[in-house]
Amino acid sequence: MYDFHLHSEYSIDSKASMESMVASAINNNLKSICFTDHVDYDATTTGMDFVFRTADYFKNINQVKYKYKNEIEILAGVEIGMQPHLFDRYNTLIENNNFDFVIMSLHAVEKIDIHTGEFTKKYEPLDALERYYGDIKKCISGFSNFDVFGHLDFIDRYFNRTASIPRFEDYYGLVYDVLKLLIQNNKGIEINTSGVRYGLGYYHPKVSILKLYKELGGEIVTIGSDSHAPNTIGHDYKLAEKLLRDLGYKYIFIFKDRKKFPINIG
Ligand SMILES: [Zn+2]
Ligand SMILES: [Zn+2]
Question: Mean pLDDT over residues 96-125, rounded?
């Protein structure tokens, strides 16, 4: 098992030490894990940055890497919270640090953090989706220094009730454009198993999107639990892998030193 989306105390929303995450990963028989702590620039209406000191981050990763080198492979990634005005800042971050893996996610639209629920409250659901996927398109067109796009449809979580999430058919075109662009640019997506833990009943992205990505020629998929605490590491990994296999995917991918490696799931 290869969990490629994990947070630790270097993220604002986690208190878990790297060592506690690693211990749990070893207990759960993971073969490789990749820390992908948050860097979110200009993430709130008041312009706050959520960052960590990368020197400390790499130092800590190197410590656990060395200590557990015979038990598990540990990689150093990052999850960047992209917005269309931040390309230069993130390029600088990534060029100055040797990350193994970069997840680009969209956590804020129009500088409103999606997690707070304010964005999905402000607009009618279809309008909110248009703005969300519209910004994703801009980010993929304008920025290439990333490997996979994170939790593609996670905005679904923040609509008032599941009943008000628009039907996929009603915004299919928006997702189609995003997937086309990702494939053209040789970028992947992740299957992020946290959607189920949030009570949504599906992973991010949902099956229809995983299917469409495959149909359009997409192949690069990583699996991540998006754990912020040790108890959910590797959560639903086998089920996610089975889902991909059922959809006709032959491989999942892992990343090291920003290069992708296929893992056969046949
Ligand atoms: Zn995220
Ligand atoms: Zn995350």
Answer: 94
